[in-house]
Design a protein that fits this description.
single chain, alpha+beta, Alpha-Beta Plaits, four-stranded antiparallel beta sheet, about 10% strand, elongated
């Protein structure tokens, strides 16, 4: 059973993605791939429907195909996120009609569009959810072909972005290609930042006090090894643990207060799998 914090994060991710699409991508014709990019192009070439309407229609069609083709592989969470994203985008179109971009600075608006979309995607990935769209196509390709899914989706997004050269001009096409690569870079880095933890290796002569602090105060596990200094020949204990960034400063200060001569190695890690962190 997922707690309320999970649902809050999920809703924030969906809202941020919808805001990035409607307020920044659509008025500037930034077709950076995916269903949102395709709907922007369709709204321009066949203006019988708006971008939000095209996006909702395509997402519903993909969901129907996904449910028929994948069955349980098309999860309820994907369906929920896809429908919510389409509904919020449609509501924004009705509540805040836009006839032109906010500013005359397309590069700044591209950065906002990509930051919001990238941050939102990272939040959804962290929640083991997705906004559907091309993710459903990826699952279908994965099931029935031996294609490299990552490359196939990148080529699809690139084709959508490149089409913007013809449909909306060279400027929109160049911004769309730039946005596509910015999005990929941002998602990877935001995911790493969200997951960032600190891995500690502490060589000390006061292992009991430090390990007790780690377990009882920080509520993390710790592994202990007997160690021997090569230079001094003295016996010491090596403690290995991982904690969140907020706890890292507390642990460092406590370890040094208990054992001023402790040797501490602190490294960044964005992929911790195990109890108290992430499960596979």
């Amino acid at each position: 059973m997922k707690d309320w914090k999970y649902w809050v994060r999920l809703e924030i991710g969906i809202i941020l993605m919808a805001v990035g699409i409607y307020f920044f991508k659509t008025p500037n014709s930034f077709a950076t791939g995916g269903v949102s990019g395709l709907s922007i192009l369709l709204a321009k070439t066949a203006p019988v429907m708006t971008q939000a309407e095209y996006m909702g229609m395509i997402n519903v069609l993909l969901l129907v195909v996904g449910v028929i083709t994948l069955g349980k592989g098309c999860s309820a969470m994907t369906i929920l996120c896809t429908l919510q994203l389409s509904a919020i985008n449609f509501a924004l179109e009705r509540l805040f009609p836009l006839e032109h971009p906010f500013t005359n600075e397309p590069l700044m608006e591209l950065l906002y569009a990509m930051f919001l979309s990238g941050f939102a995607s990272a939040i959804l990935f962290e929640c083991n959810a997705s906004s559907g769209g091309t993710d459903i196509i990826a699952l279908i390709l994965q099931k029935y072909t031996t294609l490299d899914i990552g490359k196939a989706l990148l080529l699809t997004d690139f084709a959508i972005a490149a089409s913007n050269f013809v449909i909306n001009g060279i400027g929109a096409g160049l911004y769309s290609i730039l946005g596509l690569f910015l999005k990929t870079f941002l998602i990877d880095n935001v995911i790493e930042s969200l997951n960032l933890c600190k891995a500690f290796t502490i060589v000390t002569t006061s292992p009991d006090e430090i390990s007790t602090f780690i377990m009882n105060t920080l509520h993390h596990g710790v592994t202990m090894y007997e160690a021997k200094g090569a230079y001094t020949g003295g016996k010491k204990t090596m403690l290995v643990t991982v904690c969140r960034r907020a706890d890292a400063v507390r642990l460092r200060r406590y370890a040094k207060s208990v054992d001023p001569d402790a040797f501490i190695i602190i490294t960044n890690s964005s992929e911790i799998i195990g109890r108290g962190f992430r499960e596979v």
